[in-house]
């Protein structure tokens, strides 16, 4: 039988462990975005910039799932990093499963919306739709819960 440490049993210890796990997921997600962009920028010379949502083209539908992970350069990703981190941290209050569900939902709905009404003859990519989707989720959650703290 394993003896448990007091820190493992204390609410603060469990809370801290959960917080660290959530932070690892959030920073891991944003880190993956940076690894992909730096690989594209430094190794591939920006070849992935041709992949993304191509509105109303059936070949462009793969971009619906890929666009949030691809960016038009490090500056583009840098402008998305801050909003993804702070709003992602707020979504993480409800847990990792909620965070992953929001990412999947926003990716599909945002990608489909872009595919349907985006400017034709163009390639749309980046995590801006995720950032705006995070904002929409947080505002909607605040209204549904009727608690201002959910809006913050």
Description:
This protein has 152 residues and is mainly α. It has one domain: Rhomboid-like fold, CATH 1.20.1540. 68% of the residues lie in helices and 0% in strands. 24% of the residues are buried.
Features:
single chain; 152 residues; mainly alpha; Rhomboid-like fold; 7 helices; globular
* pLDDT < 50 stretches: 3-10
What percent of residues adopt helix (DSSP H or I)? 55-70%
SSE order: HHHHHHH
Mean pLDDT level: 89
Overall form? globular
Number of strands: 0
Strand content: under 5%
Give me the secondary-structure category: mainly alpha
The count of domains is 1
CATH architectural name: Up-down Bundle
- Termini separation (Å)? 44 Å
> Which topology does CATH recognise?
Rhomboid-like fold
Q: Kindly provide the name of the CATH class.
A: Mainly Alpha
Report the oligomer.
single chain
Q: What value does the Rg take, in angstroms?
A: 18 Å
Largest sheet: none
**Number of contiguous helices:** 7
Give a short synopsis of this structure.
By secondary structure, the protein is an all-alpha fold. It has helices at residues 6-9, 11-43, 62-66, 74-91, 96-117, 128-145, 148-151.
